[in-house]
């Protein structure tokens, strides 16, 4: 018998929200994953959001990375990097030029 819990052991659960804010109004196709979890591909219309949550690992190395596609081009970005992000609720806006939260970052 195994028990699976939604509770995190040492840290609060981290919530990530990704919102399509492409200025052209195009659909945004995103695909996010970590070393252990593939969250699949999702299509967001303008102003729609995709949400996921996770428990951080005890070594402080949690990393989720995403690809974002629009207009036939693919952009990549580490949507949660524990060495950079200290948020429990990380709300990202995906724009043509950059992924933005409190400040904007460059695509990889």
General description of the model:
The chain is mainly beta. The protein has a single domain (13-100), classed as Immunoglobulin-like (Sandwich), CATH 2.60.40. It is 0% helix and 47% strand. It has strands at 14-20, 28-33, 38-44, 49-54, 63-70, 73-81, 89-94, 99-100. The protein has a four-stranded mixed sheet, with no helix packed on it. It has a four-stranded antiparallel sheet with strand order 3-2-5-6, with no helix packed on it. It is elongated, with a radius of gyration of 14 Å. The termini are far apart. It is found in: Secreted. This is S-protein homolog. InterPro entries: Self-incomp_S1. Its main location: secreted. Belongs to the plant self-incompatibility (S1) protein family.
Describe the structure using short key phrases.
self-incompatibility; 108 residues; signal; disordered N terminus; 4-stranded mixed β-sheet; secreted; 0% helix; 4-stranded antiparallel β-sheet; S-protein homolog
Topology:
Blueprint: E1 14-20, E2 28-33, E3 38-44, E4 49-54, E5 63-70, E6 73-81, E7 89-94, E8 99-100
Parallel strand pairs: 1-7
Antiparallel strand pairs: 1-4, 2-3, 2-5, 5-6, 7-8
